[in-house]
Amino acid sequence: MRSPAELVAAQAVNQTWMDGYNAPAKRTAAEWRALLERHLGHVGEGVIIRPPFFCDYGYNIRLAAGAFLNFGCVILDGSDVSIGERTQIGPAVQIYSGSEPDRPIVIGRNVWIGGGAVILPGVSIGDDAVIAAGSVVVRDVAQGVTVAGNPAKPVSF
Known about the structure:
Layout: H1 4-22, H2 29-39, E1 42-43, E2 48-49, E3 53-55, E4 61-63, E5 68-69, E6 73-76, E7 81-83, E8 88-89, E9 94-96, E10 105-107, E11 112-113, E12 118-119, E13 124-125, E14 130-131, E15 136-137, E16 146-148, E17 153-154
Parallel strand pairs: 1-4, 2-5, 3-6, 4-7, 5-8, 6-9, 7-10, 8-11, 9-12, 10-13, 11-14, 12-15, 14-16
Antiparallel strand pairs: 16-17
């Protein structure tokens, strides 16, 4: 665990990075990727994060190949946040891991998370799951399950 002074320093570095990432600029795909690779814990091939993007530290975020985060996403990464291959995250999604106690978030492959959804600390979301827009996910979601509501519960169509 990092000391309070180390966390404050890491947040200052992160704020500087976010200021640069979120600044209006024309950049090539390679330039966007370089910015992400320089700051996040892991960035797979083809990852896209549309600015603005907000996080606490950055180094606890791991994005697998093809992950996509739309405008205005927030990831509070006091603990590890892992997002699987080809997962699509809508605009204004909020992902809150917890650091005391350690409460990482694991989101599987091919997951679709609708705009405005909130994922709370310690949640795991299985591969191929769907989180409806505006849902608040307070407990684990099994593979292939669709959830909706507050709190999010399985639904069928």
